[in-house]
UniProtKB/TrEMBL annotation:
Catalysed reactions, as listed in the record: 2-C-methyl-D-erythritol 4-phosphate + CTP + H(+) = 4-CDP-2-C-methyl-D-erythritol + diphosphate
Keyword Transferase belongs to the record: yes
Source organism per UniProt: Larkinella humicola
The name this protein goes by in its record: 2-C-methyl-D-erythritol 4-phosphate cytidylyltransferase
Functional description taken from the UniProt entry: Catalyzes the formation of 4-diphosphocytidyl-2-C-methyl-D-erythritol from CTP and 2-C-methyl-D-erythritol 4-phosphate (MEP).
EC number in record: 2.7.7.60
Domain of life from the UniProt record: Bacteria
Gene that this sequence comes from: ispD
Length: 226
């Protein structure tokens, strides 16, 4: 079986959350969001190697939080970059192995399930990639330069989530690219390098905590789980 790695990217500042503390450190259910996320991967497997990417200046803050919450999960902490692409690349550089599987997951998606993580690794092992997604529930319109808009066929689209899981050999190759403005996730980087992307079923519960209302939704979700 190939070695399995997870890069949890938490190197952002959370500007859309509108608070000074990075949103990945905000508590939900009495525990920082990032600790929930890390625990989900540990529940999936005690063997998976977890790398956590943080803003360099926030590493002492994270260490203090770990002491405060007596959080002792073994993870390798790595300084992030200015963009998500750079943060992923910094994490990837720490994985010395040539072969294996790597899942990249947003630190602010704490509702990922062990089943979804497993599905990602199993699919990527077979096909090279596995990118979680969900169908759209709302109607979609394409806005034109003149301000008018056109209905589009929503069945042709998917909303993309993480985890996004890849065979290391192709992922490392893809991340040799120079950064492009349209790299919004790892799938766009891997596709740019010419590799096909396999989609897998994600979950509507697997939300990315981005704006203040997501915090309230997350608190409610935790209450319903616990
Ligand atoms: N330089 C960056 C930017 C983002 N991320 C991570 O990528 C994930 C998804 O990004 P997003 O939700 O946009 O987080 P932020 O960049 O922190 O938020 P914002 O765009 O509101 O500032 C987050 O876990 C974030 O910490 C990262 O590791 N390094
Ligand atoms: C990676 C991602 O979560 C997939 O949906 C998304 O692209 C991150 O976007 P953001 O603008 O960095 O939040």
């Amino acid at each position: 079986m190939r070695n399995r790695y997870v890069i949890i990217v938490a190197g952002g500042s959370g500007s859309r959350m509108g608070v000074t503390m990075p949103k990945q450190f905000l508590p939900i259910g009495g525990l920082p969001i990032l600790m929930h996320t890390i625990r989900r991967f540990r529940v999936y497997s005690s063997a998976v190697q977890i790398l956590v990417v943080l803003p360099a200046e926030q590493i002492p803050v994270w260490e203090a939080l770990c002491r405060q919450y007596q959080f002792e999960e073994p993870v390798l902490v790595i300084p992030g970059g200015k963009t998500r692409f750079q943060s992923v690349r910094n994490g990837l550089e720490q994985i010395r192995a040539a072969d294996g599987l790597v899942a990249v997951h947003d630190g602010v998606r704490p509702f990922v399930t062990p089943e979804l993580i497993r599905s990602g690794f199993e699919t990527a092992d077979r096909t090279g990639s596995a990118v979680a997604c969900v169908p759209l529930k709302d109607s979609v319109r394409l806005v034109q330069p003149d301000g008018s808009s056109l209905a589009v066929d929503r069945t042709s689209y998917r909303l993309i989530q993480t985890p996004q899981t890849f065979q290391l050999i192709l992922f490392k190759d893809a991340f040799r690219a120079s950064e492009q403005s349209f790299f919004t996730d790892c799938a766009s980087v891997v596709e740019y390098a010419g590799y096909p992307i396999t989609l897998i079923d994600g979950s509507y519960d697997n939300i990315k905590i981005t704006t203040p209302e997501d915090l309230e939704i997350s608190e409610q979700k935790l209450r319903s789980i616990e």
